[in-house]
Amino acid sequence: MFAPGQEQISKEDMKAAEVEACQTTKMAIAGGFLLYLSPFAVDFIRKLI
C-alpha cells in the first residue's frame, strides 16, 4: 500500500470507496437493529397465533 513507485489512488476511486464504506456502515447498523428487534417480533407473532 505504501510501497514506493506505487500509483496514487484517484479522487474518483477514493470517493467510491467512501460511499461504499458509508453504505456498509449503515447496513451493519440496520442489521444490528433488526437483530435486536427480532425476539420481540417472534414473541408478538406467537401471541397472535
What does it look like?
The chain is an all-alpha fold and 49 residues long. The protein has one helix and no strands. The protein has one helix spanning 11-48. The mean pLDDT is 89.
Furnish the topology, listing elements before pairings.
Elements: H1 11-48
Brief write-up:
The chain has 49 residues and is an all-alpha fold.
Summed over residues and divided by their number, the pLDDT gives a mean of 89
- Count of extended strands: 0
Structural class: mainly alpha
Return Rg in Å.
21 Å
- The poorly predicted ranges are none
What series of H and E elements makes up the topology?
Answer: H
> Helix count?
1
Membrane topology: Single-pass membrane protein
GO biological process, one term: protein targeting to mitochondrion
Subcellular location: Mitochondrion outer membrane
Protein name: Mitochondrial outer membrane translocase complex, subunit Tom5
